Amino acid sequence: MKPTVLILCTGNSCRSHLAEGILRAAAGDIIDVRSAGSKPAGYVHPLAVKAMAEIGIDLASHRSKHLDEFLSRDIHTVITVCGNADQACPIFPGQMQRHHWNFDDPAHATGTEDEQMAVFRRVRDEIRKVFEAYAAGLRFGKP
C-alpha cells in the first residue's frame, strides 16, 4: 500500500486542491495524495479548476472535504499550505512527517476574471515548483 500524503488548508477549495492535483500528477504512482480543510468551503473554486486544466490536470471530480474524514486513516505525511491549517492541524495516528509551505490564497483575488486568473496562475505555478521538487525528492528517497 502506498503511503498517504494529506495536504491541508483551511477551506479546501483552492490551494490544497492545486497541490493535490500537482503532486498526484508528479508522484501518484508512489504515494496516495489527498486533501482536506479545517473549515471546508463546500466547493472547489471554479478558477482553480480552470487554472489546473491549463496545465492538463483535471480537478472536476475533486470535492471539498473536512480533515476529520482522515483522522482514522494512516497518514504518513501532512503538508499544510496555509497558516491557519498549520495551527489547526491535529496529529494523525502514525504520522511520520509534517511540512508547512505557506502560499497566498487565490480565492481572495479581486478584479476582473482575467485579473483573478493571473493570481490563480501565479499561485498554481508557485505550488507546482515546490510540489514537483518534493515529488522528485520522494523518488530519490522515501516518502
TrEMBL record:
Transmembrane segments: none annotated. Residues 3-137 form the Phosphotyrosine protein phosphatase I domain. InterPro entries: Ptyr_pPase, Ptyr_pPase_sf. Keywords: Arsenical resistance. Gene3D superfamilies: 3.40.50.2300. SMART domains: LMWPc (SM00226). This is Arsenate reductase ArsC. It comes from Luteolibacter flavescens. The lineage of its organism: Bacteria, Pseudomonadati, Verrucomicrobiota, Verrucomicrobiia, Verrucomicrobiales.
